[in-house]
Amino acid sequence: MSTTTSGRGRHRRRIRIALPVSAAGIAAAVAAALLTGSADAATELPQPTVKPATGSPSAAELERRVATAIAADDTAGGRLSKSSYSSGTTESTVDAKIIGGTTTTITSAPWMAQLWYGDDKDTADPSDDEGFFCGGAVVAPTKILTAAHCVAGYDWQAHGSVITGTAQLPTVDDQGYITDLHGGSLSGVWRQWRHPSYSPVTIDADIAVLTLPYAVKATPIRMTTSGDTASYAAGTSAQVYGWGRISSTHDGMSETLKTATLPIQSDTTCAATYGSGFVKGHMVCAGKPATGSDSGTTTACNGDSGGPLVVGGRIVGIVSWGVQDCVEKGAYSVFTKVSTYVGAAYPRLDDTNVSGDHKADLWVRNAATRTGYSKNSTGTSFAARESWGDWTGADVILQTDLDRDGYQDLVHRRGSDGDVFWTHYVRSSNSWSTRRLADDWRTRTRIVTPGDVTGDYLPDLLSVDSAGVLWIYPGRGDGSFATRVKVGSGWNQYNSVRGHGDFTGDGRTDLIARAKSSGDVYLYKGTGKAGTAAFSGRIKVRTWSSTTYNAFDAVGDVTGDGRADFLARTPGGTLYLYKGTGKATSEIFATRISVGTDFKQYDIFG
Question: Which residues contact 185 (CB under 8 A, 6 or more apart)?
């Protein structure tokens, strides 16, 4: 958005970049704190070759994209149409849209992000340029939550630029030069995801996540959870944020971030206004009825698309759509209902893998040669293995991303002395670093890296000690941990405790455990809390004896559908994929799919 943008079709100068501004600082090597006192270096391990994230163009290229977006002045999803707003109205162009409200600072909303899309089509004629602006929210160091209509049909890796850390839009002079980013940091986009059920006709499932090529310094904000109903009660005060249009009579946008307080409206009220165009359970509307003019109206408007609606410090909605020019009498702003879609979006926050797509990959070690291998997921199977070298000496190896930089880490235990290490990629030096996490964990019967257990979006570490006590080590997001917290005892009854992500679709991290004696398999639903309240009472979901399966793995969302999946190996070596269904019942997994018959050779699954 800009206060000086003009309509499409006008003559525009080719964009020239006058002020080089460095792209957001490349992540420095992370200092890993110890859980215990020793700081001896780990035995040297293989240093896998990593292809650094794409989407890291030069600062000049990122600025050019921003300038192109400003000059093009299109609307995200401008080709969409929305019918059946309410009885007696005709089909009109979707106007994803703050009129009214007050300016605010980046200190008050440090997670706000500006999303600039600028494609100049590589032609000399500027009239074919495509560009627009959307808002977004940093929900993890490399993740931006936004609207699907800002993402679907666009190539953000090739043409996108993200600015964080500032409440000001960039300053552009009359010649098209960007002269000031006002302290903001520029980043490209590595990959994009939008909800697979998104419809450009109904604007349903309007939620998306952009993954950045490196972590930004902005403080993330969390999404609400699936069980949240209080935030959507009619009359609840919510805050919307954005740089959108400040008037219904012109296209001028706010140079400074604005916020407004809007009361949540009931589904009944929203449906009475928009008819079948409002999808109950998938959408929420907010605000007081528009007056028909700017006077007396407070609403989101063009340019606010993708921005957050916040209640109690959590995102409950995403600016989605509304009426043309935003202030039609009786109208409300419509938002994506985040509680409905958090189960699908949450895996995108922890979708780190080897190949850099949105499918969790498999890491295994050959029992005879001690060679480690990664096998990239295709969605229904795994591709040919790729060697990670010799991993002799390790007796536990787990896939994770403790620093949430988007690159897969490994947590591994050395069998000789039980010391636990963290091996992680350091982008700034294009190398791997290995640091000790714990001394002598030989008596720990289980070590698990399931992701965020405590609800702060920072990955945690779990272990079961020799007495059967389960402990949570709350992660700080940099490979270090806070003081451990006791969950409960009795966990030595299980010969397998696995987890990576959300099995039930509620946006919380869960565990799957199998009993030694009976083979009964239990789901422990995460609550997003620490301590004894970290998991709900167990739910029996299967019975799998050791003669049925003798190895398990949970690596996350293998299929890319937004649900955590599970892997189980037979004694004969057949590996089965159990696709997650999102149900916390015996139907937690779909019918198994064989993904290979040669897995008997592997003694460690990541």
Answer: 23, 24, 25, 163, 164, 165, 216, 217
CA dist list (Å): 204 to 19, 189, 208, 240, 326 = 40, 24, 12, 20, 19
Would you state the structure tokens that stand for residue 314, as one six-digit string? Answer: 């959590």
Q: Left (φ > 0), alpha (ψ -120 to 50) or beta: where does 139 sit?
A: alpha
Contact 559, 565 (CB under 8 A): yes
Question: In the Cβ-directed half-sphere of 540, how many Cα atoms lie within 13 Å?
Answer: 7
Identify whether 506 is a catalytic site residue: no
The pLDDT, as a whole number, for residue 318 is: 97
**204 is a catalytic site residue:** no
Closest CA to 24 of 185, 240, 224: 185
The confidence score (pLDDT) of residue 145 equals 98
Phi (first) and psi of residue 118, to 5 degrees: -135, 110
State the residue for tokens 């994803």. 96
CB burial readout 256-291, b (16+ within 10 A) else e: bbbbbebebbebeebbebbeebbbeebbbbbbebbb
Three-class secondary structure assignment of 449-469 = EEECCCCCCCCEEEEECCCCC
From 73, 74, 119, 206, active-site residue: 206
3-state secondary structure of 271: helix
When pLDDT is averaged across residues 566-575 and rounded to a whole number, the result is 98
pLDDT at 599: 98
Which among 187, 226, 305, 377 is annotated as catalytic?
Answer: 305
Instruction: Report the candidate in 80, 73, 161 with the shortest Cα–Cα distance to residue 117.
Output: 161
Tokens matching residue 506: 């509620």
- Place 248 in a pLDDT band, splitting at 50, 70 and 90: low
Residues 6+ apart with CB under 8 A from 428: 26, 27, 28, 29
SS3 417: coil
| Tokens (6 digits) for 408 | 């897969």
**Helix (H) or strand (E) run with residue 489 in it:** none
- Paired strand residues for 161: 116
Average pLDDT over residues 207-226: 92
Tokens of 352: 């780190």
C-alpha pair distances (Å), 24 with each of 21, 28, 70, 264, 581: 9, 12, 21, 36, 38
Distance CA 265, CA 130 (A): 35
Give the mean pLDDT of 308-335: 87
Using 50, 70 and 90 to split pLDDT, how confident is the model at 254? confident
* Host H or E run for residue 63: helix 59-72
C-alpha distances out from residue 599 to 64, 448, 552, Å:
50, 21, 11
Q: Structure tokens of 455?
A: 């609800």
Q: Judge whether 77 and 150 are in contact, CB under 8 Å.
A: yes
Which residues, at least 6 apart from 271, have a Cβ–Cβ distance to it below 8 Å?
A: 278, 280
Q: Contact 129/196 with Cβ under 8 angstroms?
A: no
d(CA 291, CA 24): 42
Task: Give me the pLDDT at residue 78, please.
Answer: 54
In whole angstroms, what is the distance from residue 268 CA to residue 270 CA? Answer: 5
| DSSP, residue by residue, 25-61 | PPPPPPPPPPSSS--PPPPP---------S----HHH
